[in-house]
Every structure is written in C-alpha cells, then in structure tokens.
Amino acid sequence: MSHTYQPAGDSPFRSEPTARDQAPQFVLPLVVRIERGAPPARTDALETAARAVLVLLADERAVGDGEWAEAVRDWQDARIRKVVRRARGAEWRRAEALPGITVTGKAAEVRVFPPVPLDGWPKDLARLQVSGTDLDDPEPPVAADPSAPMLWLNPDLDMSAGKAMAQAGHGAQLAWWELSDEERTAWREAGFPLAVRLAARERWQDLTTSGLPVVRDAGFTEIAPGSATVIADHPALR
C-alpha cells in the first residue's frame, strides 16, 4: 500500500522515477485490532490510522537523535510505504509487546511501529494477514466539523478498509509536511483532530485542482498506478 505525491522539488511523493526508487526501501507497519464479533467501524478505523501516523511523526523518538529517527529518515528517503495488517487476541497482544504506539479512536485501536525494511519485518508482525481487511460503517458518518482537518477519499475508487487506512495515513502525512512548525505544534497539542469522509462526486474534481496535497497511489495493490486517492484539506493549507 504505497503511494506517490507530486509537489515541486525533490519529494519522496513524486511519481517520476528518482534516486529514491534505487534507495533501500522501508515500510511503516500499522496493525488494526479486529476482534471476532467486535470489529471497529470503517470510518473510525480510517481516522485512527491517520492519527497514528501523525502521532509517530511527532513522537520525540522519531526526530532528532531519537531511537527511531534513523529508521524514519531512511523510510522518508525512499518511497513512503505503509502496510496495514490486522490482529486479534494473542496476535494483538504480541504486537503490543513490540516497540510502537497504540492510538485509540471511538472504538478502533491501531498500533503504529517505527519503519522496517521491506524484507525485515519482525516475525510477530510478518505473520499477520494483510489482505481482505474490510470494515463497514453501521450508520453513515455524521457531518464533519468544517473547521477540522479533512481527508477526502476519492468517491470513484473501491478500496478495502486496509488500503483506505494506508491512504488516509498518507494524506495525514502530506498535510503534516506542508505545515509550519507552529501549525504542527497546534495540531499536536489539540490531539490531532481530523475527519475522513468520502468526497461528493461533484466536488472531487475541484478538490484535485485546488492546490491541496493529493495522494497518488503507486499501484502496487488494488488500484491503477497514479490514481488520486486522498486530498489532504487542512485549514492552514486552504
């Protein structure tokens, strides 16, 4: 579940082949807790995954001389990949024992881990299933606060919950990168409020040409390369 982004300059989200494609490739693991008979709502899981990415990026261990900082830098020097796996019961307890951060939404629980090499997953994460993660919203999501950061999903793409969680994480990361230090601090101190919603079809084209950050998928799974999946709409970027 990887993606690209296309701002000016030498960004790891560019769609054109760059030196980042030849660099050692890393992935950010995310694990969603899905207990049998008690799955989280889809939108709750998407929003929790997006916040989990932000929580890791803002964590003191991920910056400067922190213990995760080198892994985060190596990951951001290559393609920015995220993979969502699912766990329950003993699988979840083993995942929680590994270094990482668990972020909780309304009911969803997502644990994010420092980046690992593509072929170097910890065995307790590598054995978790990645495909087939699907969730539903028992009721339509309530209208989002228009002043809150929004991650708009492409209404014309059919993505599994796992895929959409990764894409929401990408969108949150793009917004984070575009903000000033003061804006990042304010967002972090507020607890990273955000909402993930399916864009109305009549608005999607306007969003993609608005100048807001656009996630374009690399096409490794589920959807065609270059597909716009998420628009990151933070108030400070409007």
UniProtKB/TrEMBL annotation:
Q: So which domain of life are we looking at?
A: Bacteria
What's the EC number here? Answer: 3.1.1.29
How would you classify this enzyme at the top EC level? hydrolase
> What Gene3D superfamilies does its record include?
Bit1 (3.40.1490.10)
Hydrolase: is it a keyword of this entry? yes
Catalyzed reactions per annotation? an N-acyl-L-alpha-aminoacyl-tRNA + H2O = an N-acyl-L-amino acid + a tRNA + H(+)
Offer one Pfam family short name for this entry: PTH2
List UniProt keywords, sorted A-Z. Hydrolase
Q: Is Hydrolase included in the keywords of this UniProt record?
A: yes
For this chain, one GO molecular function annotation is: peptidyl-tRNA hydrolase activity
Q: Where is this region: Disordered?
A: 1-20
Its name, as the record gives it, is peptidyl-tRNA hydrolase
Organism name: Streptomyces cupreus
